[in-house]
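tool_log.txt
---
The assistant was asked to compare two proteins side by side. It first ran the structure predictor on the initial sequence, then on the second. Raw inputs and outputs are pasted verbatim so the downstream comparison step can read them without reformatting.
(1)
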Amino acid sequence: MDKIEWLDAATAKIRFRPDRKAVRRELEAHLEDLREASGLGEAAALGALGDPGEIAEELGRIHRPWMGYLWRASQLALIGAAAMYCLVLALLAARPGYSYRALPGMDLYNFLREDAGTAESLCGQPAIEERELSAGTVLKTGGYTIRNGRSVYRLVSGQDGPQWHLYIDLNVTMSRWEEPLDCWRIISGFRTDAGRVEKGDCSRVSVDWGFWQKCAFELSDFPEDAEWVELDFGYGELKRTLHIDLTKEAEV
């Protein structure tokens, strides 16, 4: 048995290829060191190292394949995280302003309320009173998941006295690189003692980033006793309606 055959046999039980290559290099280096130090020939040095079958069994127990795969997976995860970080930095540089607020976990309502000096901002008037409503309504349609992330009644000063405004924050997830929703038709229907009313007086801000989009609406002079509100988007057969219950206040 020559050196190549001996090394093949000694590393045959190591199933994770990178480990097998590394151990093979170490054994080959150890063999050369032994020959140089002892003056033995190749066959004698191989015999001094031991039976390759027994060595293979021992190395196979030491080098478990799942450990190697876990190490490789951690490397790939680190590379992926670094790539995502670089992508986010690039997008921030390419899209200044508050587009990063479209990312999950970012609160669009508080940002718009605090940034009332911008031309596109909602919630520009200071609130006399705010009442948080229960959110969480979800509409899944096509490749979109639309979630009512926040609903807030805001009492603000108007020309004819205090008025209630309704603020709605929608979080949209796009599962297959669909285009952001941009055809909202602001027709809100709500039921009071007078029945259904159609209303179109609304301000809107929309930001999107990759798979995520956020839409913020503020409906001015909105009845405080409304039971529900509906937001429509799309046209014809593609029309969809998000129905939001306004009767429950958020738990504190």
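(2)
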Amino acid sequence: MDFFSAASHELKTPITIIKGQLQGMLYQVGRYKDRETYIAESLAVTNTLEKMVQELLTISRLDTMGYVCNKNEFDLSSLINECLSAHEDLFMQRELTVEIFISPVIFVLGDMRLLQKVLDNLLGNAAAYSPAGNHIFVKLWQNDNKAKLTIENTGVHIPDGDIPKLFEAFYRVDQSRNRQTGGTGLGLYIVKTILDLHGAEIKIENTGKGVIVSVQF
């Protein structure tokens, strides 16, 4: 009930914004006479709303009683390389340097489609919350029959009091920053839910250079 109460509140905000902008443009009220600007803003808010609805549908499916992952053995090294290639344009737009240290042919048992969602979210976060000109370090290796992945982004830190709350639904460290990036506050909640289904562990810590996410399969 707490989750759905929060979801209702979060959905109401972008709907209210879009409705106000459309009404302002329709009646040509004050600043809304500049329709081109507010059409673009309404579209951006709609995109955030669409993303939130998609994530709520994902959560609904994952949290269904009796839900079971479709697990198969697959090459995690290859999947990470594919996800990095898909994010190349984003890294370039953000003027970020990505350094990759991935051991080849590391197999894990899991739902590849869900774990791709985890990787996309973590890489997207690293890009979105790194100031231009910084670095992202992606490492994958195997030790004691466990696959270990770290993604570190430099130039930013998370307040220590916020770190334990990062995996809560709708939790945002910086409201204004999330509005700029289109964050819904659900990404890390979904990441944790998926990794729990795989018996994997995740933690987020500050480092001397920035923030590191560690995942162990």
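---
observation on (2): Residues 56 and 156 are 28 Å apart (CA to CA). The first strand starts at residue 72 and ends at 75.
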